[in-house]
Design brief:
Layout lengths: L1 E7 L7 H16 L7 E7 L6 E2 L2 E2 L18 E8 L7 H15 L9 E8 L18 H9 L5
Helix pairs in contact: 1-2
């Protein structure tokens, strides 16, 4: 599984189509390597009075021009990515994946003028189930069946 938690101000990702476009891009990134049913994206709106960076609410209603740093009126997007179905096997693969994530996020976040940050963690595959089932081994015939049916099956 890949789980993307996208924390964002309510003034961003306001429409279902904006969310769907990013979710589709993320799913396409992973679907080359894992079944699409393993890809989960959660959009989590966080009010500006609950979203702080450097001790400053983001976005803030008015900039404090006396303070250095980014413009606090600009929305800040924070993405937490957990990879479980596959781990990145080498430093080179990690660099390539970071570049791919940057490319996916660019039109939805960077090009919108938002400030942003993300991190990726890899979780032990042995502590994961879908529908109460342990997912089949990577690349196995059973996993191909799950991918073809786009659901966990016994």
């Amino acid at each position: 599984m890949s789980l993307w938690l996208i924390y964002h101000p309510p003034t961003t990702f306001e429409t279902a189509s904006a969310k769907a476009a990013l979710a589709e891009s993320v799913t396409k990134l992973y679907a080359r390597f894992i079944p699409a049913l393993y890809v989960n994206i959660l959009f989590i709106p966080i009010g500006p009075d609950s979203f702080y960076v450097s001790g400053v609410a983001r976005p803030s209603p008015a900039p404090n021009s006396a303070e250095p740093g980014p413009d606090p009126t600009v929305p800040f997007i924070r993405v937490h990515i957990s990879n479980i179905a596959r781990t990145l096997p080498s430093p080179e693969a990690k660099v390539r994946f970071l570049e791919a994530v940057d490319k996916v996020l660019k039109p939805h976040i960077e090009d919108m003028g938002y400030d942003w940050e993300y991190h990726i963690e890899e979780t032990d595959r042995d502590l994961w189930k879908i529908q109460g089932l342990v997912p089949p081994p990577p690349g196995s015939d059973e996993e191909k069946i799950w991918a073809g049916q786009n659901k966990a099956t016994k």
